[in-house]
UniProtKB/TrEMBL annotation:
Residues 216-413 form the Uroporphyrinogen decarboxylase (URO-D) domain. It comes from Acididesulfobacillus acetoxydans. Keywords: Lyase. The keyword Lyase applies. Its EC number is 4.1.1.37. It is an enzyme of class 4 (lyase). Pfam families: URO-D. The keyword Phosphoprotein does not apply. GO terms for molecular function: uroporphyrinogen decarboxylase activity. InterPro entries: Methanogen_methyltrans (IPR052024), UROD/MetE-like_sf (IPR038071), Uroporphyrinogen_deCOase (IPR000257). One of its GO terms (biological process) is porphyrin-containing compound biosynthetic process. This is Uroporphyrinogen decarboxylase.
Length: 418
């Protein structure tokens, strides 16, 4: 698919705009980078269930969004997860329309549990790969329960006499057959995403926002293994084991993000922060358990030539001084709940900031109220560069006229006077 001249010009202008903001320069205007989740599907009259089970309908919904809005960074249908694939695996930590949620137009939900118990830290530390394969995966995907019988690390020398026969078990074979079916369907989805990414670039002139995803090492453990309450309890009851696990997972998190960015060929890594919020741990605990590994993770991504977009979900009013400890002009902090004026004051000479147009305002406010809020953000955060317009969180049920107001005021009022 060749790029038309208008799309090429718009693509390069948007990309330059974003890159200038990251480098703390003043671009031609404030970049628009809203992270849209369900909004394009609601906007196009498509249900969430349709979007999750019909890739091409999801793509058509995004077509309408990009034709009408033209952001400076955009998202392909990756955030509308493929229902067929998750259903095939019998995914335990997600429910969605068609699987656990009756309303076809309700958003999917994460189901948090202890997928690793408090007495399994030593096993995780001994061999994270084996633990994930033999414990976490079978607990997380019902159709892959047979993988719990594999112990391939014991295959050295003639150990294979004992480990290879397990492939004769029906449970193992069933799990492997499921993985083959999964790979076929996943490749269809990847092919679709690749084609849509080219369409975004060549028809709409919109650069893709992400090259890879990432998570703070603490969140790798807290989100997917221990759960929120258990890992917060671990801070007090088993701090040494928790710190050891965080240290063990930090290079794994770095490797995953770098490999993902290399595979995509795009330098933007979106890092979704969850459990470091003000309400869940003290400033001292944040400085001991959360920030050091996250700072290392950010530094190693920058050293690899990548740009971390730190999507700061929740309240971070007490964390700003920590967030200064990153390479200058190399990092974006996209805030949900923060005093943006204070964020500009503390971080403005170090990192680009984005956000935080309230989602509630977009859902229940008026275009005039949205315009007023965005103008205040631009007045305080835009001077000198290093600011991008985004919503407070991923956008679902916003009023179209309010989204249009945010785009319009940013394009007209957010122009830098030279």
């Amino acid at each position: 698919m060749s790029m038309n001249a208008d799309a090429k010009q718009q693509y390069q202008a948007s990309l330059n705009r974003v890159l200038d903001a990251i480098k703390l320069k003043e671009p031609d205007r404030v970049p628009l980078i809203p992270v849209v989740e369900a909004f394009p599907y609601y906007y196009a009259g498509l249900t969430i269930q349709e979007g999750m089970y019909d890739y091409h309908k999801a793509g058509a919904a995004l077509d309408k969004f990009y034709a009408d809005f033209h952001p400076d960074l955009g998202w392909d249908p990756v955030l509308m997860y493929p229902g067929k694939i998750m259903e095939l695996l019998d995914m335990k930590w997600f429910q969605w329309p068609g699987r656990g949620i009756e309303d076809p137009n309700s958003m999917y939900q994460y189901i948090e549990k202890e997928y690793m118990t408090e007495d399994e830290y030593d096993e995780l530390l001994l061999d994270p790969t084996h633990f994930i394969q033999s414990k976490w995966i079978p607990r997380s995907f019902g159709a892959l329960d047979g993988l719990k019988y594999l112990a391939l690390r014991d295959s050295i020398w003639f150990g294979f006499f004992n480990t290879f026969p397990v492939f004769g078990r029906k449970e193992v074979q069933d799990s492997l057959q499921t993985l083959l079916k999964f790979a076929e369907e996943m490749n269809k989805w990847y092919t679709f995403l690749g084609e849509y990414d080219k369409k975004m670039e060549n028809e709409f002139g919109v650069p893709l926002a992400y090259g890879a995803w990432g998570y703070a090492p603490f969140d790798w453990l807290g989100d997917t293994m221990r759960g929120t309450v258990p890992i917060l309890r671990d801070i007090r009851e088993r701090p040494d084991k928790l710190l050891a696990a965080i240290e063990r997972f930090t290079p794994i998190a770095v490797e995953a993000s770098i490999n993902g960015a290399k595979a995509s060929g795009r330098p933007f890594v979106w890092v979704w922060l969850h459990k470091g919020v003000d309400q869940l741990m003290s400033k001292e605990q944040f400085g001991k358990f959360y920030w050091p590994s996250l700072r290392q993770y950010i530094q190693e991504l920058v050293d690899a030539g990548l740009t971390p977009f730190i999507y700061v979900e929740g309240s971070y009013h007490k964390r700003l001084e920590f967030l200064r400890e990153v390479p200058k002009g190399k990092v974006v902090y996209d805030f949900e709940d923060i005093d943006m004026f204070e964020a500009k004051k503390v971080l403005g000479d170090v990192a680009c900031i984005a956000g935080n147009v309230p989602n509630a305002l977009l859902s229940y406010g008026t275009p005039a109220e949205v315009e007023e809020y965005c103008k205040k953000l631009i007045d305080v955060c835009a001077p000198g560069g290093g600011f991008m317009m985004d919503t407070a969180a991923m956008v679902d049920d916003a009023k179209p006229e309010n989204m249009q107001a945010m785009f319009k005021v940013t394009r007209e009022y957010g122009v830098y006077r030279r």
